[in-house]
Amino acid sequence: MQVMRTQSLIKRTRMITLKAVLSILPSSFATAMPESESSLDVLIVGSGFSGIYNLYQLRKLGYSARIFDAASKSGGTWYWNCYPGARVDSEIPVYELSLPELWKDWTWTERFPGWKELRKYFAYVVDKLDVKKYISYDTRVVSAHWDSVSDRWTVTTDTGVVVHPRFLIFATGFASMPYSPAFKGLETFEGICHHTARWPEEDVDMKGKRVAVIGTGASGVQVIQEVGPVVKHLAVFQRTPNFAIAMQQRKVTVEEQKRRKEDGTYPAIFRRRLQTPSGFWQEALPKPFASATPEERFLHWQQTWAQGAFTFLVTNFYDYAINDDANKEVYAFWRNKVHARVTDSVKAELLAPQVQPHPFAAKRPSLEQTYYEVYNQPNVTLTDTSKYPIEEITPKGVRTADGVHHEVDVIVLATGFNITATITHIDIRGRKGKSLKEKWADGVYTNLGMAVSDFPNMFFTYGPQAPTAFSNGPTCIEIQTNFIVKCIKYMIDNNLTFIEPLPAAEEIWREQIWETNKAGPWLKAKGWYNDLNIPGKSIQPLNYAGGVGKYAKICEEVGQKGYEGFTLVTRLPTGQTRIWVHDQGKVDSEAQAGRESESETQPETAIVAVGA
Ligand code: N01
């Protein structure tokens, strides 16, 4: 069965490959690449982990690289998400760059740092790596168009700057385009209203105010537990309960970090996080749920719950998320934890209902500290918007379908992100003049979650179709940056003009995304894992779910095989164009699709297929 599938993929691949190669040739061939004054080897968009890491590695190799960032400071997510309580949910040192020149001299104060400390870390990083001079802040990229004459991108910004880089990296992550539902009357609200990911720098004083929080994802949970104790009244609007688990936050000392650096723990963690399915250092129990007694299971869960972080999930029985009995028992364990903390039985039932709303792990559970205790306050109300949706926002508050008008001074929209729009909201146009938004109108197609056909020399990181949500930022980003930087070096070293994926490779990758997601629980709930958090979108899994370690290996192998699954093109000084469609890594081999010019008479044997 598997063999037949593979053969048919190869067949399909061959056909698509031929089409792709013929269509890649521009109508006229340029003789040389004119160097514009504003040309750069690489332009990077965004100065979070990925942008800075790319910039540093590329400059180390001697390339002219620069970052444009719409923000006024580095930090990416941690620049924009400065809402009360914003805090990372991967513990240190997993959540930092693995460069020894950075971690050796940096110390944290908390196991899960908050946004202020993360911003300090980013300021330290750009200083220590001496890259700040290559970053233009307050500079938003508004368009990027490929120019088939110069074989460069033309990138324009909202400040009027235009540059012409050879390579373009969108280090924009998955969560930089906030999603705000089109609530009727939202614009009429007379109080203060902000999305968590566009929180004002100067903060909003919520002390003694009546506050509404709409949404109970990671952002909502954090805001609620932070502002709950200080507000006059808190109205929480929950559509789906968050299966939040114990963070077990604590202070970390300079001494313990020093010891872990000196005894080899830090470097071991940085290497280990590239080997596991989750990008953390732990792995699932190698035995099935059914092989353990109820007592063994209970004690294991108690122990991993007490350890905090995602340990409860990551070190669970390997089949807990897909075995219905196991999933129900995990849910019951979690539900007991919640009910033990929430005194009001009606609120407890809304937060952790008897009927399990969706499989555990189908949506991302948050890590909480005092979230459930907040609901014990008499001035906190909880409305189930799956039963009583928000009908309208009035000048004075929020009206729900049960007829209740919740009068508030502040509305916090903790309503998440439009994952694909993070990149597509920029007017990016490839070789054929088509925008990325148009290209992805019927679904996301990428190779390795990093590159798109018809969009030459363009990469993106920590976005759709990579392990993104099933990893943590720095881990995924380092894998991808290593791939991208090596690829750019390879292109430059081999005098190659541009690279882009084969459409066939994108189809295969998309199929991989579906297959790996079908093997888990992630398609069984509506949310940003599968693009269903945005009304009107069709289901499509947005993360590679085959495991971080496996993804790292795949990327490494693609590079070793001379960028299998990609088309590489070079312009010769004679004005001719040569195309390589890579297979098995024979980059300079005569057996490849080297061709001197576009011609209908080119033999089909010149076309080689990507591997299945
Ligand atoms: O967004 P979300 P988030 N009416 O999409 C609700 C990362 N992150 O910003 O679940 C009523 O998870 C929606 O309800 P439902 C992190 O990876 C990390 O919280 O769709 N409600 C949901 O409750 C995280 O997982 C950090 O039924 C509506 C909420 O809004 C990811 O980003 C901090 C609604 C959106 O939750 C996303 O987290 C911030 C409507 N019309 C972000 N529309 C940390 O590291 C939506 N909702 C901690």
UniProtKB/TrEMBL annotation:
Positions with biased composition (Basic and acidic residues): 585-598
The entry's keywords: FAD, Flavoprotein, Monooxygenase, NADP, Oxidoreductase
Cofactor(s) for this UniProt protein: FAD
Protein name from the UniProt record: FAD/NAD(P)-binding domain-containing protein
Gene Ontology terms for molecular function: flavin adenine dinucleotide binding; N,N-dimethylaniline monooxygenase activity; NADP binding
Location of the region described as Disordered in the Swiss-Prot/TrEMBL record: 585-612
Protein family membership: Belongs to the FAD-binding monooxygenase family.
Cross-referenced Gene3D superfamilies: FAD/NAD(P)-binding domain
InterPro entries: FAD-binding_Monooxygenases (IPR050775), FAD/NAD-bd_sf (IPR036188), Flavin_mOase-like (IPR020946)
